[in-house]
Design goal:
By secondary structure, this protein is α/β, with parallel strands linked by helices. 48% of the residues lie in helices and 9% in strands. The chain has 21 helices and 12 strands. Strand 6 and strand 7 form a beta hairpin. The radius of gyration is 32 Å and the shape is elongated. The chain starts with a strand and ends in a 7-residue tail after the last helix. The chain binds one RNA strand through strand 7, strand 8, helix 6, strand 12 and helix 13.
Length: 529
RNA sequence: GGCCCCGUCGUCUAGCCAGGUCUAGGACACAGGCCUUUCACGCCUGCAACACGGGUUCAAAUCCCGUCGGGGUCACCA
């Protein structure tokens, strides 16, 4: 039998990092066994705008390289894959449940139910519906309806015995039927609820393995009941540990962002991304742009391979040392047996480390390809196809080496190359630290004059010029190099200084030194602070 | 509260099923050092865990019992 797995997103408008992990494991498992992976859309609750709310999710999966064989946009033999379009199937199933005596019409009002529940609570016994307003015949149903009552359909769960869920990760898990409620499967208006829909869909789509987060484990008995009552074969189950908050065992949730922002590592990664978004001129709100949302990583310029590799290791490992996997290796090695049982907390710093690693694997040209669009977005170049930009960027990227961790970093590290000589920003802290020294003006001026006398302006010549200068001045390099860097780049950090000067060229370098000299010494120095 | 799941360094994990080779291994983070014009990379060193208590056994992170702790779930949400 062909392995078929599925992931069932709700169209919420964004792709959550925890959801991706679940989808990834489904994808990996199906690929490992030469099967199919499908996307089913759980939109029974949604009103309209499903397409708009779904687009970012589909886009996110595509970006990560998680492709689906059936589902939205690709179709498939069991269309439609939207729950909102499958109501007839669900109603048909409800009718069969009713006919088989596995479900009943119920006419209790919410208040009556609430009263029963409260009474159970007072008596300190587990609540179980009395079935007092259960209608097992049409006559009974009519009688209730004549009182103006509205009927829903409830599962008629056994009141004794046990059910054993065979789970690939948890082993055998036992539940008492008597603890299970008579869940509603169909509302008075005829619409159906998730658990029923999910079971029907999994059967219709011929899903063989249900791999989902463990929060669904306690829902499984009712689904088993539905499936068995309908005569469906049971799928194999695997309940994954959930992804937890940074530094905690609580489930990761998009709603508790404020709390995560207090986590040092999370905050660091977030701020880094926000700075890039700002440089790009993106209008971002914390709700939709943060390290819990996949889109964040795409916008900032992370690599899909880094994210997928990191996520794969959240709750799974091959052995005691292997950390890096190509897609092919992931597929070849994935197995449910090696999925962990305990929750794994999301560690943005570790994701960062994977990103660092994968970025280092890229050639200069591959980095340039990814960074050109960022420069264009930030209006530092006209377009990604700008003929002049590419050669310059190649040199910048080569000089920057491993400093560029994400594609967006090019904006922070190299904006000054693309800005006019009188228009690049000077970091106030750097100025304070390296330019506000009594001896800085003289040193800068004399170094500028030495550069002015240079015939060739390549890295080697610059290095030699610097050494000669140090000898003449009888100083150490630290006494001058920082001031020069801040003067020409505006920053305290960046690629090697000789690289920066060489890339800027003689004319621009001198212009920048002159401007800084004028700005900070001719006019500012001597004036009261 | 009921039911269910889980519990190895701060974090991700290996080891547990088939007890000894575990004075518990790797990775990230952190600290210190080296390299160095800054930052980053790289390299070296260090810090740091078997939740607790009983058993079983010559021997327990590994098996059994109990306790404690954490989490999930208890909707006419998905």
């Amino acid at each position: 039998m062909t392995v078929r797995t599925r992931f069932a997103p709700s169209p919420t408008g964004y792709l959550h990092i925890g959801g991706v992990r679940t989808a990834l494991f489904n994808w990996l498992f199906s690929r490992r066994h030469g099967g199919q992976f499908l996307l089913r859309i759980d939109d029974t609750d949604q009103e309209r705008n499903v397409d708009a709310a779904l687009a970012p999710i589909l886009h996110g999966f595509r970006w990560l390289g998680i492709d689906w064989d059936e589902g939205p946009e690709v179709g498939g033999p069991f269309e439609p894959y939207y729950q909102s379009q499958r109501l007839a199937r669900y109603q048909d199933a409800v009718a069969r449940l009713l006919a088989g005596g596995f479900a009943y019409r119920d006419y209790a009002t919410p208040d009556e139910l609430k009263a029963e529940r409260e009474q159970a609570e007072r008596e300190k016994r587990p609540f179980l519906y009395s079935r007092r307003w259960m209608a097992e015949s049409d006559a009974q149903a009519r009688a209730f309806e004549s009182e103006g009552r509205q009927g829903v359909v409830r599962l008629k769960i056994p009141r004794e015995g046990k059910v054993v869920i065979k789970d690939h990760i948890r082993g055998d898990v036992e539940f008492d039927w008597a603890r299970e409620q008579d869940h509603v499967v169909q509302r008075a208006d005829g619409t159906c609820l998730y658990h029923l829909a999910s079971v029907v869909d999994d059967f219709d789509f011929q899903i063989t393995h249900v791999i989902r987060a463990e929060e669904h484990l306690s829902n499984t008995p009712r689904q088993v009941f539905i499936a068995q009552s309908l005569g469906y074969p049971l799928p194999e189950y695997a309940h994954l540990p959930y992804v937890a908050e940074p530094g905690s065992k609580n489930k990761l949730s998009k709603r508790k962002l404020d709390k995560y922002l207090k986590n040092r590592d999370f905050a660091l990664v977030n701020e880094h991304g926000q700075a890039i978004a700002k440089a790009l001129g993106l209008s971002t709100s914390a709700d939709t742009f943060n390290p819990v949302i996949v889109d964040f990583y795409e916008q900032v310029g992370y690599l899909p391979d880094a994210i997928v590799n990191y996520l794969m290791l959240l709750g799974w490992s091959l052995d005691d040392r292997t950390e890096f996997f190509t897609r092919q290796q992931m597929i070849e090695n994935f197995s449910l047996q090696r999925v962990t049982k305990s929750p794994a907390s999301f560690d943005p710093k570790k994701l960062w480390a994977f990103q660092d690693h994968y970025m280092q694997q890229l050639s200069v040209d591959e980095k340039v390809d990814r960074m050109l669009p960022f420069l264009a977005h930030a209006n530092l170049i006209d377009s990604p196809d700008d003929a002049d930009a590419r050669p310059l960027l190649r040199k910048i990227v080569a000089a920057a080496g491993d400093r560029l961790k994400v594609s967006g970093d090019i904006l922070a590290y190299a904006d000054f190359f693309f800005l006019p000589d009188d228009g690049y920003p000077l970091d106030p802290d750097a100025v304070e630290k390296h330019l506000r020294k009594p001896e800085a003006a003289g040193l800068l001026r004399r170094f500028r004059d030495r550069l002015g006398g240079l015939d060739s302006f390549d890295v080697e010549s610059l290095e030699r010029a610097m050494h000669d200068f140090l000898e003449a001045e009888q100083i150490k390099i630290g006494a001058v190099v920082h001031a020069v860097r801040v003067a020409v780049t505006g920053k305290a950090v960046g690629p090697g200084l000789y690289d920066c000067l060489a890339l800027l060229g003689k004319e621009r370098s001198l212009a920048r030194l002159d401007r800084t000299l004028q700005l900070y010494f001719d006019t500012v120095v001597g004036r009261p602070a």
